[in-house]
Design a protein that fits this description.
The structure is a single chain. The longest helix is centred in the N-terminal third of the chain and has 47 residues. The N and C termini lie far apart (80 Å). This protein is mostly helical. The protein is 82% helix and 0% strand. It has 7 helices and no strands. The protein has a domain of 154 residues.
């Protein structure tokens, strides 16, 4: 009795994982940097919180719009390629069969076996076979604009909210160091979680995301201090 073997691969997570990690990382870094820059210019805690909240809303909308436009462009390109392939299958079946068989030969199959595989796959679903093996378009990796936009906006908002919670709970004299330190912790946790979810090395993910986050926050704090001195 044959049994179907189902495996769950991490590639199925790539679409939403990329958008979510990017959104959360941007949310933490941009909002923490904004807060630190404003705080370094000696602005009151209430104004810092207002600026950070505005940054959260603006950033979430920007991330959603940017991801939607970018991924929709990819989806449009995929659709155009599929339409072209559909037309070629309707007008030149023999040529498309040879093209598919040549792809399998290039991947190491014997020519006779490649011919047989091409025949069977095209009989089953010719467009799907060409989309997958000629164009590299699969259901798992296909562009999904709304999913990417939603994941980016939500993850940005969640990431941006973390430094704002710290601002709301921390006395003004300790605000700079508290936001800086906790944001690095948030980034480290995010980098580790993303690396673990994607199957990468956790230490590398943590170091990469915290380094760039610390650099961005340090530069923005320095700019804020310059404006504070000038004022």
């Amino acid at each position: 009795m044959s049994r179907l073997h189902h495996e769950r691969h991490r590639t199925s997570r790539m679409g939403w994982l990329r958008a979510s990690v990017l959104g959360a990382n941007d949310g933490i870094v941009s909002t923490a940097s904004l807060v630190l820059g404003v705080a370094a210019a000696h602005v009151s805690g209430q104004n810092i919180l207002i600026a950070g909240s505005a940054g959260l809303v603006a950033g979430a909308m920007s991330m959603a719009a940017g991801e939607y436009v970018s991924v929709h462009s990819q989806a449009d390109s995929e659709q155009a390629e599929l339409e072209r392939e559909r037309h070629e299958l309707a007008t030149d079946v023999a040529g498309e069969h040879k093209e598919l068989a040549a792809i399998y030969v290039g991947r190491g199959l014997d020519p006779a076996l490649a011919e047989e595989v091409a025949v069977q796959l095209m009989a089953h679903d010719a467009l799907d076979a060409h989309a997958r093996d000629e164009l590299g378009i699969t259901e798992i990796l296909r562009a999904r604009p709304l999913q990417a936009a939603g994941a980016s906006a939500l993850s940005f908002a969640v990431g941006a909210a973390l430094p704002l919670v710290v601002v709301a709970l921390t006395p003004e004299p300790a605000l700079l160091w508290s936001v800086f330190a906790t944001s690095l912790v948030f980034l480290a946790l995010l980098g580790g979680l993303a690396a673990r979810t994607g199957g990468a090395r956790i230490r590398t993910g943590v170091m990469r995301i915290t380094f760039w986050g610390a650099l961005a926050m340090a530069i923005t704090t320095g700019v804020g201090m310059l404006f504070g001195v000038a004022a």
